[in-house]
Write a structure and sequence with these properties.
This protein has 306 residues and is largely without helices or strands. It contains no helices and seven strands.
Length: 306
């Protein structure tokens, strides 16, 4: 017998602190009881559903969970691969080792969530709110965080690298299609911690990195076109061959950093600290140098290359 059509007005009852009925499509009577370790792979649920308590290891692979409410839930090791979680609420949830590979988390709210060692490779996280989130040792390789809010987020030891180097914008490079890479264009990383992270080939064009902590971070061939890194601490970071044209590096600390081959044309370096840094082969046409501490310790208001 064909299942009866269900109404969107259906009230979804909470059975217990760790159990909730999740109804699939409004045209199918199938339902999924979500508990610890539950399998709700492929479930369709395009209206808000409350889900609290212990949902560790639950399987939501490929599920359509747009607008779902997972506040305060324990979702440790939960599987959200390829799931549609646009505008979902994960605030204060425990997402340790959860899997969001290739998931759509655009406009989702993760404030206060714990996301240590989370899998976010190739995830679409545009406009997501991850302010203050713990993302230590997380995998964000080839993920898109365009316009995302990562204010004060902790990405210590995270993998935010891209498979391909981002092409420079015309007229500084040929008008070619950008290949997949980690994309933080226009993202807010104010005060974020990226120390020890791997950000090779990542794109930070027009991103806000003021006051960021990035000790020993690998930024090889990363893009900072028009980015703001005022007051950022980049001691010992590898910034070799970065494209930082028009960037702002006012008061940035880069002691012992490797900037060989970096493109800082038209960048602003005021009070920038470059003691013991490697600046061989950098391009600095049109750059502003004021009270910069050069690699040898001398303070100059002209290029340290002279």
């Amino acid at each position: 017998m064909a299942p009866k059509r269900m109404s969107l007005a259906l009230v979804i009852p909470i059975l217990a602190a760790s159990t909730v009925i999740v109804v699939s499509t409004p045209t199918h009577a199938a339902s999924c009881t979500v508990t610890k370790g539950a399998n709700c792979s492929g479930t369709t649920m395009n209206w808000k559903v409350k889900s609290h308590g212990n949902l560790a290891k639950a399987n939501f692979k490929g599920a359509k969970l747009k607008g779902a409410d997972f506040r305060n839930a324990n979702l440790k090791k939960a599987n959200f691969q390829r799931a549609n979680l646009e505008s979902a609420n994960f605030s204060n949830a425990n997402l340790t080792k959860a899997n969001f590979k290739k998931a759509n988390i655009k406009f989702a709210n993760f404030t206060g969530a714990t996301m240590t060692k989370v899998q976010l490779a190739k995830a679409k996280a545009g406009n997501a709110n991850l302010s203050g989130v713990t993302l230590t040792k997380a995998n964000l390789r080839n993920a898109s965080f365009i316009n995302a809010n990562l204010y004060g987020a902790d990405l210590t030891g995270a993998n935010i690298s891209g498979s391909n180097q981002f092409p420079p914008p015309p007229p500084f490079g040929p008008p070619v299609e950008a290949k997949r890479t980690s994309d933080f264009t226009n993202a807010n990383l104010f005060g974020a911690t990226l120390s020890g992270a791997n950000a090779k080939n990542a794109n930070f064009d027009n991103a806000q990195l003021n006051g960021a902590f990035a000790f020993g971070t690998n930024f090889q061939q990363a893009y900072f076109y028009g980015a703001t890194l005022n007051g950022a601490l980049l001691d010992g970071a590898d910034l070799s061959n970065v494209f930082a044209l028009g960037s702002n590096l006012v008061g940035a600390g880069m002691r012992g950093a490797n900037l060989s081959g970096a493109d800082v044309r038209y960048a602003t370096l005021i009070g920038t600290f470059l003691l013991d840094a490697n600046i061989s082969g950098i391009l600095d046409t049109g750059a502003t140098w004021v009270n910069v501490t050069c690699p040898g310790g001398n303070v100059r208001s002209s290029s340290c290359l002279v």
